[in-house]
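We treat protein structure as text, and this decision shapes the records that our systems exchange. This encoding replaces a full spatial description with a residue-level series of whole-number codes. Below, we set out a record of this kind in full and without editing:
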Amino acid sequence: MSKKKIAIIGCGNIAEFHIPALREAGLECVHCASSLNSKTIDQFAARHKIDKAWTDPKKLARAKDQWDGMVIAASVEPTLDLLKIVARSGKPVLVEKPVATSSERLAEFSTQSPSNIIVAYNRRHYNTVQKAQEFVTNKINLRATMTLPENVSTEFKDPYFLVHENSVHGFDMLSFIFGKVSVEHVETANTDNPYFGRHAILKSSAGHLINLIMNWKAPANFSLSLDDAKHRLDLVPFEKFQLYDGMKVIEPSDKYPVRQYVPHQVDSGTVFDNMPAQIKPGFLGQALEFSNLIDGKLPTVGANMTDAYNAQVIAEQILGNHKP
């Protein structure tokens, strides 16, 4: 049985991570392209033993008879236009997040998404994030805090670019874990400095409140903490989890002459548990789901275009520039 033939557009850092994951999933990368007349695509093709490098990405996007599925891992600006060309083929597409950095550009997907598109929010495929989803399921009372110390800076042309391009990972994680979430309240951490941070309260469809701390440029980890007053699950950073059950008392000793009350850890793990060392976390899971989509099986974990739209809406509401 012949392998499914994959084409990829993009030859930057993120594309380098896709190739080994696609191959581990049993897919064959046979075509690649990058920007028009790219000077680096030939080296990328040679490095990854891809049969044909195309000089025009749009021509590859339209050549639907030569591939079974397409991965779009281009820079953000041309991604949506390329996606629209590929999507018209009806064949499966795995497109890198965020697809676009404004909800306005994604507005046509606000209520429905083409079934042949998976958006590569790879953290949904983390075992740690899936454990968080399991922790939340069927909980009536729950406290949640997410911390996103993004690198917001006036040194960039758009100081908030990384909120739209990277913090959206966190927003999408919340939607995956809790179901649809809404922004209830936002405060600027320093009213004299809009680039210092934001504090926001989000609410899940089940009524859980989520404390979102955007402590921009802080020397801190991206993190998520969940607790139901007895158990606590920490993802600090997102790639690790620690599960606690109640508190443990450690009596005073000569070395530490004070009674200690510490969380009782009952489980822990990382995204690297039982995963091939050469594969970036989350990428194999989404590659396998992409392969299943080529076989006609709809995704159960991967994000869609409506999810991508919702992530940008949350970003804009927190930044105060969303236009309903």
Notes: The domain at 125-276 is CATH 3.30.360.10 (Dihydrodipicolinate Reductase; domain 2). The chain has eight helices and 14 strands.
